[in-house]
Amino acid sequence: MSHRDDILADRLNVEPAIFKGCSSSELSLIVGVAALVWLPVSLLLAGLMGAITMGFGIAGMGVVGTVIVMASLFQRLKRGRPDGYYQQQALIWLADRGLRHAPFIRRSGAWDIGRSGHAALPLRDR
Questions:
Q1: CA-to-CA distance for 49 and 51, rounded, in angstroms?
Q2: How many CA atoms lie less than 13 Å away from 108 in the CB half-sphere?
Q3: How far apart are CA 3 and CA 82, in angstroms?
Q4: For the chain, percent of residues with pLDDT exceeding 90
Q5: What is d(CA 104, CA 92) in angstroms, rounded to the nearest whole number?
Q6: What pLDDT was estimated at residue 35?
Q7: Residue ranges of the domains in the chain?
Q8: What distance in Å separates the CA atoms of residue 39 and residue 10, rounded to the nearest whole number?
Q9: pLDDT in tens, 63-83
Q10: How far, in whole angstroms, is CA 36 from its chain's centroid?
Q11: Considering the chain, what is the average pLDDT of its residues?
């Protein structure tokens, strides 16, 4: 019997999409990387122009623009595909270049159990 105060989000299998098909963890990753790129670049450019505080505004606009563009890109990549598809593709891409070990079986061909002889079966008592 279910109660009326059950939280439905406790029964989800995947994170819900909150902006353009991206989950909160994907959005936080995009925001973090965008901030790491835009903040030093914009502060440097604004410092060269003599208005360092203007760099924070440029960084803010750059981060928002990057989030919108990257969320649209992720939305296109994820459309019609199963959950975690692009993450698996990224792991395979890294494994193909020798940068990381992929936890997937990617071998094609005949498989063998590694034995050359047959094992004797134990006799059953009657």
A1: 6
A2: 0
A3: 31
A4: 28
A5: 8
A6: 95
A7: 15-96
A8: 36
A9: 999 999 999 998 888 888 888
A10: 18
A11: 84
